[in-house]
Structures are given as C-alpha cells and as structure tokens.
Amino acid sequence: MHDIEKLEKEWRIYKLKQFKPIAITVGIIGAGYLFFIGSTTLVSYSLVLTRPAIAVMSKNKIHLDQQESVAQPQKVASQEMVKVSSSSNQTIKQDENPKELASVILQPDTNFLTSFSYKEPPKDWPNEEKRRAPKEAQHLSSVTTPPKSVEPSPPVTQHHTSKSLVIQTKTSHNTLEHLIERFNNSREPKLATYIASMFYKRKQYQDAIRWSIIANSLEPSNEESWLLYAKAKVQLGERDDAIRALRIYLDQYTSKKIRSYLHTLEHNL
Amino acid sequence: MSKYKELQQIFIDRVEVKHYIGLDSSILFYNQLQESIKKPLKMILLYGKPGTGKSVLIHKLHHDTKSEHNVYLIATPIQSEKEFIQRLYEFLFPDHIIPDDLTFNRFIDLCHQTREKRHIIVLLDEAQLYPPEMLEKIRLISDTRTIKFVVSLHKTEQEDLIAKEHFQSRIWETIELKNGSLHDTSMYIQKKLVQQNFFEIAHMFQKKHFKLIHQFTQGNYREINKLMYTLFEIYDYYENHQPSKISGKTIKTKYIEMSALKLGYIHA
Ligand SMILES: Nc1ncnc2c1ncn2[C@@H]1O[C@H](COP(=O)(O)OP(=O)(O)O)[C@@H](O)[C@H]1O
Ligand SMILES: [Mg+2]
C-alpha cells in the first residue's frame, strides 16, 4: 500500500482515539439526558394518574415516540458510516498499483534504513571530488545546503537522473545519487547520516565527514552522525579530532555507544 | 513540474538571500546584529536552536554588508587549523599570496602589525562544529582587534557551557534567536507562497490552519518547512490519484494532521 494511504489509515486511528473521550462524554451526557427524560415521563405519568385527562397522556406518548424516531436514524447513520469507511479501505487496496509505487518518489521514509542492503552505485557515477564546486563557492554556500541544492534548478541532479534512467529499477532507488537527490528534497537528517555512512563504506572518508557535518547541523543530538564523523577521522589518521568530537558530544548528551567508542580510542584498543 | 511538486520545492530548507523574508522576529534580530557589528566589540555570539534562522540571518548580513564593512563569511566550518588561518589571511590581505610558512603565531603577529590599517569582520556559521582548540584560537585572534567575529552556534542543552568556556570574557554581545510567534508562522507561510506567485494557495490557508501548524512546529522555521513540504506531498499524491479528495476551497485540516503524523509530532 502506498505511504500516503497508510498515513491516511493512521490518521483515522488517530482521529478515532481523539474522538473516544468525546464519545464517552457524549455518551454519559446522552445517558443522563435519557434518564432525565425517563424521570420526567414518570412524573407526567404520575400526573396523569392524578388527573384523568387522556389528552395529556397521549401527548406524552407522542413525545416519546418522537424521541425514538429521532434516535433510530442516528443509529442507522453511524452504522452506515462504519460501512463507508471500511469499504473505502477496500477501494484503496484495489488502487494499489505496483507501477505507481515505483514511480512516485517520496520524502525519505527512514524505515528503509533498517531493511536496506547497500548496493554499489553505477560506475559512471562521477567522483564526489570532481563534482565539488570551486573552493570559494563552496564556502559561500551554507553547510545546511549541500552544493547541489544551492543552485536554483539543480542541473547536476538532472544530469545524474537522466544518466541512470536506464537502470532505474526498483532497487536503484536507493543508490547514492538517488539518496542525495532525496536528501536535497527533504533535508531529512537521518538521510544525511545514512549518506555519510555509505561514503564511509566506500572509504570516501572526506565525504563521509562532510555529510556527517551536514547531518549534525540538522540534528545535533544524533549520535550516529558524531560516530561516523569520528570513525572517518580515525580512518584519516586524525584520531585526536575524533576523540575531541566525541568528548564534546558526551559533554552534552549521554550515549553508551559513543562512550564505548571513545574508550576504545583513548586506550588505543 | 506539477503545481504541488513546485509548492514542495518552495519549502525545501535552503539558505538563500534572495528568498529572505522579513518577519517581525527576523527583522528585530537583523537590526540588532547590524547594530552590534558597528560597535567596537571583539566577538558577537548569535545562538539559538536549529531552525530558528541563524544561517539565513548571517547570510543576509553578509550579502547586505560585504561591500561597506569588509564582511566575510565562512559558512562551512573549516576543520584544519592551517586551512582556517589561510582563509583568514586571504580575507585580511586579498592582494597577497599566502606565505608557505604561515603559522598561527605568525598570523597573530601580522594581525597586530596591520591593526591600524585594516579591520575585517568574519562571520562563522555552524561554529559549534569547530573543535574547542580552534575556538580558543579564534578568541586569541579576536584579541588583536584586527578581526571581529560573529559566531553563530546551536543552542544546546548546555549552551552555557560553550558560551562560558570559550567566550564568556570576550563576548560582549549575545543575540539569542528564538522560534517565531503564531503571527510569524502565518506571515512566513503566506509570504513564501506569495513570493512564488501562489496567491490562490495562500488564500486557502485560514487562521485555524496557521494555528494548527504553529502548534505542531512551535514556530520553528525548519519544522514549518518540513510540515509544508509533507503537506504538499500529500496534495500531490491525491491530485494524481483521487483529485476529488482535494477539491475544497480551503486546506483540509486532515492533511495537516496527516503531515504531523508522518513527521512524528503526533502519534496514532
Ligand atoms: N527570515 C527568513 N526568511 C526566509 N526563510 C527563512 C527565514 N528564517 C528561516 N528560514 C527558513 O528556515 C530554514 C532554517 O533556517 P536556518 O537559518 O538554516 O536555521 P539555523 O541556521 O538556525 O539552523 C531555512 O532553510 C529557511 O528555509
Ligand atoms: Mg544553520
């Protein structure tokens, strides 16, 4: 099922939960009201008993009948509502179409981070180093804006997608270029962390550092980005930088993972 | 590109001066900052939670003042000390070639020598990413009074720690950026839409929508961007699959709530 449809389902649950307390209150008030009506009818019945006027009694009966006839359609309506919602779920299911699933690119769903296995991107993927903007321009752009997204219409991105279009099957959705494009569209810190980790796996440590800094600037508390930064620094032989970064982190947050890695570094394990 | 895809693009986080929006809060902070850099201070600390608009502000300041004040910007922290000093050298002596033997101490000497002749202002964004030793050196450079620094950093739970350790005695002015008010949230969204000529979409938002969005995002611009991006992603989906679901004249609260669910502000 498509993400948005899943989301809609989730929303229904959310609304239902939100609605519950209201429903209970309405129920209590309703019951109270019925009780009140009931007691007034009793009173009027007793009045009837004392006053032998049939007209009053019949009026009361009419009143009661009206009550019932109002209540019944409501019941029917709510039953219908239940039916409608369940049937719309079915239509949603029918709508599910594998083609659409493949063509609609969404904001990163971080779920895939756990299930996804790393695939080597296409060979013609240019080296990150080559694509870098000239030094000056790079420093004028902000850290929260990686080179590509600085440009109003990213020609680089288009270039990549057109190149990889042929091999753009379901699995290639998670190649590095795709992830970077998705990141540019979403600014999801977890995605930046993930991109950093991919660069790390490819032993492109400078790029791993760059992406972990981007992730960090979006979400400073995320321990993964700090870990990646430190690990990449270690790989570049800049152990001191790594230790320093982890100490800064531990000054502000607590993390077993970071503490143990720092311990390993400090003791040259 | 479809309309809603275009609308998504508007709310991508990007720091671009041409898309700067004057909001009550940002104008206030901006004027404060402009005043501060005119004063004879060594350092100015600009801090606030991520997404409060620090980078945007610092880029705008750079853009508006670089010609008159010799204002320079280092937007991405430079990790190596050598490279950092070289960059400062370039700023301070634009016509010179960087000497091979440029050390930190040599640079401090040069700063002292040039003090009477030239002053520059250097804006450092994302300064929380500089290692403490570097911050200490930045402090020493500022002591020469040749370079004045505007340091922008994230407010963390222990922001005082950073401020105290590295700057307390030197920073004579701190500006704290905060999340925007409900009014700022509405203005931000409306101005962003109008800026790109989406007048009819801007009209689809009513007070109740802004209230809801503000409630979810707390007036944090990065969070507002995320929410709006997701909202138009949902609209885009329905436009392609069930257009009847988005046919109303106003934005549906439901879709704002769905966006909030997706982003984890609320839970089912
Ligand atoms: N005054 C403003 N005008 C336009 N956009 C803004 C403004 N303030 C914040 N934003 C938006 O909010 C996002 C986050 O702001 P940013 O400056 O990156 O925050 P910080 O540096 O404090 O983390 C920016 O990418 C931009 O889209
Ligand atoms: Mg920033």
Features:
heterodimer; A: 269 residues; mainly alpha; Serine Threonine Protein Phosphatase 5, Tetratricopeptide repeat; 3 domains; 14 helices; B: 268 residues; 5 strands; binds adenosine-5'-diphosphate
What does this structure look like?
The complex is a heterodimer of chains A (269) and B (268). Chain A has 14 helices and no strands. Chain A is mainly α and 269 residues long. Chain A folds into 3 domains: 4-58; 61-104, no CATH class; 176-266, Serine Threonine Protein Phosphatase 5, Tetratricopeptide repeat. The two termini of chain A are 48 Å apart. Chain B is α/β, with parallel strands linked by helices and 268 residues long. A 5-stranded parallel β-sheet of chain B has the order 2-3-4-1-5, with helices on both faces. In chain B, helix 6 (132-143) links the parallel strand 3 and strand 4 (147-154). The longest helix of chain B is centred in the C-terminal third of the chain and has 21 residues, at 221-241. Chain B is elongated and about 70 Å long. Chain B starts with a helix and ends in a 6-residue tail after the last helix. The interface between A and B is large, with 43 and 50 residues. The site of adenosine-5'-diphosphate (ADP) has 19 residues of chain B, from helix 3 and helix 11.
